[in-house]
Amino acid sequence: MSWIRITNTENIPLREGRSVLVNGRDIAIFNLGDRFLAVENRCPHGGGPLAEGLVSGNTVVCPLHAWKVCLESGAVKKPQSDACLMTYPVETVGDIVCVDVPASARAA
Amino acid sequence: MERLIVVGNGMAGVACVEQILKHAPKFEITIFGDETHVNYNRILLSSVLAGEKEMDDITLNGLEWYQSNGILLRLGVRITAVDPVAKTVTGEDGSVTPYDKLLLATGSTAFIPPIPGVDKDGVFAFRNLDDTRNILERAREGAKVVVIGGGLLGLEAARGLQVQGCDVTVVHLMDTLMERQLDSAGGEYLKKQIEHLGVRVELSKSTTALLGNGHVEGVAFKDGASLPAEMVVVAAGIRPNVDLGRKAGLAINRGIVVNDYMETSDSSVFAVGECVEHNGIVYGLVAPLFEQGKVLAATITGNRGPVYLGSKQAAKLKIMGVDVFSAGDPNAADGAEIVKYEDPTLGIYKKLLVRDNKLAGVILVGDVNDSHRYMEWLRADTDISAMRRSLLFPEPTSDDGQDVAQIPDGETVCGCMGVTKGAIVQAIQSRGLNTLAQLKECTKASTGCGSCTTLCQHLLKAVAPNFEEEGKKVLCHCVPFSQESLREIVRSQRLKSVQDILSIYGNGVGCEICKPALSYMVDVVWCGDHEEDRSARFINDRVHANIQKDGTFSVVPRIRGGITSPAELRKIADVADKYNVPMVKITGSQRIDLLGVKKSDLPKIWADLGMPSGQAYTKGVRMVKTCVGTEFCRFGTQDAIGAGVELERRLENLFTPHKVKMGAVGCPRNCAEATVKDIGLVGQEGSWQVVVGGAAGKSVRKADLLITVETTEQALEAAGLFFQYYREHGNYLERTYDFVERIGIEKIRKETVYALDPAKKGLLDRLRKSKAISYDAWQEGVRPVNPTQFVQIEAIERPLERFSHEQFQGALV
User: Fold this and answer.
1) Residues 6 or more apart whose Cβ sits within 8 Å of residue B780
2) Strand runs (DSSP E) across B99-206, as ranges?
3) pLDDT digits (tens, 9 = 90+) for B654-675
4) d(CA B324, CA B364)
């Protein structure tokens, strides 16, 4: 486990996501206004870029086929599915969004 | 047959005639009306002022109703004299008409206080359709308007004017708004809500003069202050019209005095409605008029028996987003218990007055959901001791059906028209009703103020075997309103951002269905002058390119009418080489698609191309496909290329409910398939056919003819009219071919190409305004709405520089 300083908070607009490549992992970080959340940037359905999705509450909707993923748990909310994405702890330190990314355990 | 003359063609008179017609035929009926309109719903004038309804929408009985019931209607004739001995009435036109029975339904007129200057130009009452029309003519954006009077009518007028864009101040003589219906705390809650809408309210203001030279320019007050005003609307109350009654020699107090059988002091003369005084009370609201009408109908037809014993009065303010209800005697001082609840943050105020375990009066502000329950308690004089614990908050019922089932059959559902639950259920069952429209026509329920509409729908749902909701499909569970209602909400509440709509009328969150729809809605309602929120847009509308299955994007530049040049083609080829574009494809729309482009390359590609966006990724104007037309074709009869390129130029960069693909062909051979396009121009010798609603996608549909015109300019204008009409009335994600079928081409023609000039001008003006504010989206390559829109974010720290968990925890402290 290690916390990586990613980017200034203002680089991720309110209710939008941005992707970042860390330790070989493609991570989607979302700004929900009161907090930031991060999940794998890859929809379990067709591999769509979740960072480009529309945010709905604490979920994101994949831009390809509208699968809905919970940003807190990584679980797929729509359609019915057992698929679950990896989530990453996020903290903001001052103006900086930091994500806790495992060193390389699952890195490609 | 006896001759019955009815003086007054308003709601009370005509409703009474409707009741009379239910009895055995006895009369030859003549109705005189001093207005020039057929009978209309006066309660909804404020909705006309607010633009929620057209004047035609509020007609209650059309001319055919009078004809089919054998009623002679004399419009625009004011009756000026009655001779009770000779039994005749005299009209302003000199006509003298004899009667056997006379029914006075003369209603009331606006009270204009004797203030110096009220005769100035620009000062209006707000009482009838003509007043409404006059006010609307003057109500321009930014006009300073003062409304004198903070009662029901004044507030509704103020809100209507504010929706029309005026800068409105309400001045009220008393220290509480709607003081006859509210107490001072309730008035304060109401004031906050009215001010929240953007209407200023000034209390305890006594108007002393209207200023100006000929035309009103301002209003002066007793305290020395004054306000500028280019229009003044006086809503200071109404006065019963008793003049004719007096001439007929009837007993008069404030109104024409009637007994419980609705008889006046003259056995041949009857009176009903606002001009009447019963038991010392003159009623100014609609429900009592209907109750009186029923009794009068029985008496006048020789079925004397039913009696009128007065009405429980209720008032409801019809301002969207401002809920106020008051009934009974809300200010009873004589030892009534007060049960109340307040939530200043939510703006909710509820106050019940209870006397001898019965409800004596009620005031609701901010939450009127229970108004029906309270009204029924008042009407039935219900003993509420068993319900004391749930007076302010009813026990929750899990489903509507059960809720409806609990209403007793005798309970009144529609207070305006006096229709009980039993009557509604009986009508539904015996006549096989399935829609609200059928129910309205059959029982008249829900045709008055409309506040029982939901209840009627619940009843239909519970009782009708094949209940149809009538196209009132809600947009989605986040904002449970139909798109039509939402457009109205957005317009009337002047909401300019998606998040505001969601916060005020929805769950505050939104989803992938409602957010793009609402984004479109605020754009079209405000002609592009809205608060753009890219987080509410689908990715395609953030990066102005079409996302592909692998997360790359496609780029389609605008090639108007499919006409390009060697230089343009070279540029496209160079770009394809430079950015290693994996596929270059000629599209079905006479354009070129560059597929497989990385998001971060988009701005660079746009800059290198130097061509505008073809909007191939959005619900907007795609393209106009053209044939060669008269340019080169041997058979061409019209310049399809010229017309097509111009059509595309006029509409490009605009957004629509769904994509709009167009075509222009120079002869009926239809080589560019204009007859299966959303909008098509089909040239023929000497004219153009403008066709709409065609499809060659998921479904195939031949377009309907909108109009045939002689010149290209006329064809372009007709296309523009339909285009803007579709933008304003189409539901999001509704293609023109579904839209045209839903609305019907006849109605579309009537409201676009055959509309009256002001309506046409309105459509074209709004189109022009939107177009002026629109721009080529690819300019955002240089000036993105968000700086990181096209940029791949790089972590500040390379993974190698990472620090340990412990260090990080330290940094947090």
Assistant:
1) B544, B789
2) 101-104, 108-110, 123-125, 144-148, 167-171, 200-202
3) 999 999 999 999 999 999 999 9
4) 6
Answer for the pair B708, B687: CB distance below 8 angstroms, yes or no.
Answer: yes
Q: Which fold has domain A2-101?
A: Rieske Iron-sulfur Protein (2.102.10)
- The structural domains of chain B, with segments of one domain joined by +, span 2-109+240-300, 123-236, 321-395, 397-463, 474-537, 545-773
Chains A, B: CB pairs < 8 Å: 101
Report yes or no: A48 and B551 within 8 Å, Cβ to Cβ.
Answer: yes
CATH number of the B2-109+240-300 domain? 3.50.50.60
Cis peptide before B758 (omega within 30 of 0): no
In order of B100, B364, B542, B570, B596, the CA distances from B613 in angstroms are 77, 53, 13, 18, 17
Structure tokens at A51: 């960072």
Question: Which residues in B lie closer than 8 A to residue A38 (C-beta atoms)?
Answer: none
Contacts of A22 in chain B (CB under 8 A): 795, 799
CA–CA separation, B377 vs B807, rounded Å?
69
Structure tokens at A76: 């797929």
Per-residue pLDDT at A108 exceeds 50: no
* Burial degree of B699 (CB within 10 A; 0-12, 13-18, 19+): exposed
Amino acid letter at B656?
Answer: T
Contact assessment for residue B605 and residue B598, using Cβ atoms and an 8 Å cutoff: no
For the domain made up of B321-395, the CATH class stated in words is alpha beta
Model confidence at B803, in pLDDT bands (50, 70, 90)?
low
Q: Which ipTM value was assigned to this complex? A: 0.94
State which amino acid sits at residue B321.
Answer: G
Q: What are the domain boundaries of chain A?
A: 2-101
Q: Half-sphere exposure of B579 toward its Cβ, with a 13 Å CA cutoff?
A: 28
Burial label for B24, CB within 10 Å (0-12, 13-18, 19+), is exposed
Which residue from A2, A13, A54 is facing B803, i.e. has the nearest CB? A2
**With the C-alpha atoms ordered B660, B661, B666, B669, is the resulting torsion angle positive or negative?**
negative
- In angstroms, the CA B169 to CA B86 distance is 51
**Which residues have C-beta within 8 Å of that of residue B750, sequence separation ≥ 6?**
none
What whole-number distance in Å separates Cα of residue B553 and Cα of residue B545? 6
**Sign, Cα dihedral of B471, B476, B481, B483:** negative
Chain A positions touching B509 (Cβ under 8 A) are 56-57
SS3 string, B547-591, reads: ECCCCCEEECECCHHHCCCHHHHHHHHHHHHHCCCCEEEECCCCC
Task: Please tell me the CATH code under which domain B123-236 is placed.
Answer: 3.50.50.60
Q: How many CA atoms lie within 13 A of B304 on its CB side?
A: 8
Which residue from B minimizes the CA distance to A18? B793
Q: What are A50-99's pLDDT values in tens digits? A: 999 999 999 999 999 999 999 999 999 988 889 999 999 999 999 999 99
CA B271 to chain centre: 35
Q: What contacts B388, CB < 8 A, 6 or more positions away? A: none
Which residue of chain A is at minimal alpha-carbon distance from B550? A48
At which residue do the structure tokens 């060193």 appear?
A: A103
At residue B96, what are phi and psi to the nearest 5 degrees?
-120, 125
Same fold, B2-109+240-300 and B123-236: yes
CATH of domain B545-773: 3.30.413.10
Residue with tokens 């270059």: B584
Residue of B nearest to A51 (CA): B539
| Options 1.10.10.1100, 1.10.10.10, 3.30.70.330, 3.40.190.10; CATH of B397-463 | 1.10.10.1100
Give the residue with greater pLDDT, B495 vs B332.
B495
